[in-house]
Amino acid sequence: MKLFDTHAHIGSEEFDSDRAVVLEECKRVGVVGILNVSTSAEDLPRVMNLGDQFPILKPAIGIHPERIASVSDRQAVEEVDAVEKLLRAQSDRVFGISEVGLDFSPFVLRNGHGDPESIKARQRSALERQVLHSAVHVILFSN
Fold first, then answer.
1. Is residue 142 predicted with pLDDT exceeding 90?
2. Is the model's pTM score more than 0.70?
3. How far apart are CA 134 and CA 70, in angstroms?
4. Which residue of 37, 49, 53, 131 has the fewest CB atoms within a 10 Å radius of its CB?
5. In angstroms, how far is the first alpha carbon of the chain from the final one?
């Protein structure tokens, strides 16, 4: 059986010490690809570089909804701009757009500012302009 992990944060620093071992084990059990997603503009180079270093990791770039809700409007726009710039410059290296979605978690609703939906819509728009995969981030809460 061939497996593909559609949403992982294996590019995070906490995996630095054993990432190579974990990825070898993934390959051994039949994982053929792992969508390695970014959560902020700061993550973008790391996600891309890990995709070059480990072919099993497929770079997916985007800004997490919680990140958008936790920074200023200006910072959120700058981070999405960084995603769009990278996508234009290196689309051949980008496997997909990540963290595009509808996050109705209490954190995002409570900490939302400006119009985070319009910022997330820009990420979706970047996806539509390219023929790419998408990792949709959806969290719903109800009482």
1. no
2. yes
3. 23
4. 131
5. 39
